[in-house]
Amino acid sequence: MLKAMLEPKSIAVIGASRTPGKIGYVVLRNIIGYGYSGRVYPINPHANEILGLKAYPSVLEVPGEVDVAVITIPAQEVPKAIEDCGRKGVKVAVVITSGFSEVGNVELEERIVKIAREYGVRILGPNIFGYAYTPRNINATFGPMEIEKGNIALISQSGALGIALMGWTIMNEIGLSALFSIGNMADIDVAELSELLIEDPHTRVIAIYLEGIKPGRGGEFVEKMSKVTREKPVVAVKAGRTSRGMRAVASHTGSLAGSDQLYEAAFKQAGIIRAYTVEEMFDIARAFAQQPLPRGENTVIITNGGGVGVLATDAAELTGVKLLDPSPQLIEAFKQTMPWFGSPKNPVDLTGQAVVDNYLKALKVAVESPEVDNIVILYCRTAVLDPRDLAKAIVEFYEENKVEKTTVTSFVGGQDAYDAMRYLNRHNIPSYSSPERAINAISKMIWYVKYREAKRKK
Amino acid sequence: MLKAMLEPKSIAVIGASRTPGKIGYVVLRNIIGYGYSGRVYPINPHANEILGLKAYPSVLEVPGEVDVAVITIPAQEVPKAIEDCGRKGVKVAVVITSGFSEVGNVELEERIVKIAREYGVRILGPNIFGYAYTPRNINATFGPMEIEKGNIALISQSGALGIALMGWTIMNEIGLSALFSIGNMADIDVAELSELLIEDPHTRVIAIYLEGIKPGRGGEFVEKMSKVTREKPVVAVKAGRTSRGMRAVASHTGSLAGSDQLYEAAFKQAGIIRAYTVEEMFDIARAFAQQPLPRGENTVIITNGGGVGVLATDAAELTGVKLLDPSPQLIEAFKQTMPWFGSPKNPVDLTGQAVVDNYLKALKVAVESPEVDNIVILYCRTAVLDPRDLAKAIVEFYEENKVEKTTVTSFVGGQDAYDAMRYLNRHNIPSYSSPERAINAISKMIWYVKYREAKRKK
């Protein structure tokens, strides 16, 4: 059933509007503009045509089948629309409309769920900004029309934040496979959506902004999410960690946040990686989306700056990343890649005199050594090495040698270092604005692999 | 004596070079190119003129006085140069040259210090990239020529990181008053430099990247830094927090890092704000540089997105920022600024329908209310409010009303939200990529005010 959202043959927009700026207009424009190739049916009793498409007075009048109906009409009219959807055989109703339990209108929300159940229609929402699935060019949201394509599925319980993140992910070139606004979760919840994504070949990692699950459904949440994390990593921010934050949640989505310790325990049990900020969530998700899973925990840091090497070393120790103690042979091999005053131990410090060649030699040693599982490449802007040259060389090296060792990078410098990091990111080598963020991301990958192995052994 | 670095009437570059790319060339080019208006003397026995300036074979041949000498010649020749400086009456020798204690050459380092002491010359370095003082257009480094001017003094024990941060601060439009590379700290140390900056009217906050102070000088460090923090906030990153990080420090600068608990205690005693990443250090320093100190701890969050409001609330609770419980009157006043379904409590949620006018009204209420000390402005990208319009309106409001309440902001969205944040930052309203970072910055400001008040009462 839910799968219809990912592969709908047709989408109806109930409440499609001819007025630019209106939600019913923006949703329809986004569906068409982002390139969805299935059939699209605007539903509006007062229009014959909207945005070049024939409009229908009711979903019941649509000639063909309707898999997904996006609903943007006023709350009071939603029950009738859901009933129409039921009679039409719509599989999922995406209820964007707000004015339900989040403003105390619990009864109306219960009513639409009841009707939906009668007919076997599933409801996403209400009180959401829509959903998107980029492999099929579906953008059924009232956010920006463009969505960067990629392998991260984002599920957001906050509408405003979710929409804002649509722009944010574009700016940061973070690619999404899917995007779900879940709002009041009257029917479909975060666990069910995550389950749906297990089989999705375009999703490598699931990122969730969560304010709270429904009371009494903790056990089900843990059970379902455990199944998900056996197959795919899940990274989640749980907002409402503090008592005051929980009160803010209550006045925001009306959901009961529940004690943070409970969530902490549930996440741990379910193998969900907990991020503490949205930025951190994407830091981690990017690494999973772009890199192979670590094959082990022995990590090597290669740097041209002692300071960032120290910062990364601290971060590794604090996040449980095991820094390899290289064998004498490996130390000797690293020694050949650097000036005499460099440091061949871990961190491997190529010194500020390092040029592209030093990095490539050290990378070659690291990639070929069976001792090394993961690689952290750091760079500080120097006069002798343009970061863009280094980024290009790294990408070329990784592509030519089909490197399978998990790698993260961090470049510190000005605009050119920033550009170099964008280049790396665009070529699936995750790059971070600080060594600590790079280390944190890889630490979570290593944790996940260990978690999953332990789980699978059971 | 040290003050000569901030107001030198003349600078000599011992080892000035005609060869582009050489350190002795870059330093001279930067001093000239960044616009230093005092006299500049290239010292090079093999040249008559360098970069359009008359060159002298020795600093002793310079006709006028020399306040500061920047030294870039090979290590073995440095003792002689220091002696010349002494005979010439140079006040500070900035020894860029490396090859001293950091590579085990302790004896040579001790020798130059001994000579310097005999003549009363002070030494910055050796093994540094130079120093800068932007109010006088002094850039005596071999980093980039441009330095963004501002009110943060940066002291870096790591050369590579410091240089990389020169580019990074430009890209992020973070303004510096001064920049000191301290390297081996053979003579002038971080505490003395901080003391020097107490009286500097252009420095509002001191940011320090520290790997370790000299053994046995902990007491002196605490004493001097306590004096500094009574007048100006100091934010420091201490690298080498973990045992492995400390080993990395030892192989990097050769300095003994000492146990992290000792530093933790010393920082606390000295009133130094500890940052855990370089990004965090600048987050905090920016707030101090741009905003007035908090007049109290009652903080109000104004937002158009519930989700970011919750994240900020959590962050406030976790960092000890006291969120105001508004009086009934204040709640009523906030109520007038928002749609009926908004939340007038704290966080003040103007809802996703908020436009500029809602924000301005809420800001007016917050600024005029005696209950409110500090303001956190959050924004999530919506279709109804362009973040650039909001940023302009905020800046105008703050400038017109000469708002004296400490304010930080965070906008979540795409390129336009990013541009809006740049605009805010450029107009002294610090803006951060996440609500948590904004809250963290203001939490440290509030902490500092309390610390200082307690200290001054004693």
How many discrete structural domains of chain A?
Answer: 3
N/C terminus separation of chain A: 31 Å
The quaternary state of the protein chains shown equals homodimer
Q: What is the tally of helical segments of chain A?
A: 15
Strand content of chain A: 15-25%
Largest interface: A-B, 74 and 74 residues
What portion of residues of chain A is helical? Answer: 40-55%
The CATH class assignment of the largest domain in chain A is Alpha Beta
Poorly predicted parts of chain A: none
CATH topology of the largest domain in chain A: Rossmann fold
Q: What characterizes the major β-sheet of chain A?
A: 7 strands, mixed
The CATH homologous superfamily of the largest domain in chain A: Succinyl-CoA synthetase domains
**Rounded to an integer, what's the Rg of chain A over CA atoms?**
25 Å
Query: What CATH architecture label of the largest domain in chain A applies?
Result: 3-Layer(aba) Sandwich
Principal-axis shape of chain A equals elongated
Q: How many extended strands of chain A? A: 19
Describe this protein with a few key phrases:
homodimer, 458 residues, alpha/beta, Rossmann fold, 3 domains, seven-stranded mixed β-sheet, five-stranded parallel β-sheet, 15 helices, 19 strands, 41% helix, 18% strand
